[in-house]
Amino acid sequence: MTYKTLFAAAALAIASTTMAFAADITVSDPYMRVSGAMATSGAAFMVIDNHGDEDRLIGVRSDIAQKVELHTHLQDANGVMKMVHVAEGFPIAAGETHALQRGGDHVMFLGLNSVPVQGDVVELTLTFEKAGDIVVEVPVDNDRAPQMGNGMGNGKMDHSKMNHGAMKAGAGN
Ligand SMILES: [Cu+2]
Fold first, then answer.
1. How far does the centroid of ligand 1 lie from the alpha carbon of residue 20, in Å?
2. Whole-prediction pTM value?
3. How close is the Cα of 150 to the center of ligand 1, in Å?
4. Which domains, ranges and CATH numbers included, belong to the chain?
5. 111 CA to middle of ligand 1, Å?
6. pLDDT tens track for 104-117
7. How far does residue 172's CA lie from ligand 1's centre (Å)?
8. What HEC string does the chain produce?
């Protein structure tokens, strides 16, 4: 065995160890939106697949903002959609696909240290109760159209009543 193949074998061994550790949870299609050059906040969206036992997304962190939180949207008594901090995180059942998407659950960046622009990649660490930390490279894509028709199947989401003014500062929409 040459040095080169030995090195490749070692690298492969390390890679498969790492992958085995987080294999139960996979994260795909991440993207982030910020609401302009003067933005103080942003939001990230992605699809989380749980191939293992029930788990829970309990934390998020990133150097790009002073605070990173798990948020969702809830309708208040007046039918206005509001963003709320979900301190207990998002449970993800065994075999479930959990989408973080606009109008629903999302990652919120509050107090941006610097405003990322289109195409920038932001490093985000997701912490799961069982799977541990998963680092996700999140590209900024302000042009991305919202997904339609899936993940909102509870019928409670009425966009005609959404108060966009109230959420303007948040970029969560
Ligand atoms: Cu939010």
1. 32
2. 0.73
3. 19
4. 25-167 (2.60.40.1890)
5. 12
6. 999 999 999 999 99
7. 5
8. CCHHHHHHHHHHHHHHHHHHHHCCEEEEEEEEEECCCCCCEEEEEEEEEECCCCEEEEEEECCCEEEEEEEEEEECCCCCEEEEECCCCEEECCCCEEEECCCCCEEEEEEECCCCCCCCEEEEEEEECCCEEEEEEEEECCCCCCCCCCCCCCCCCCHHHCCHHHHCCCCCC
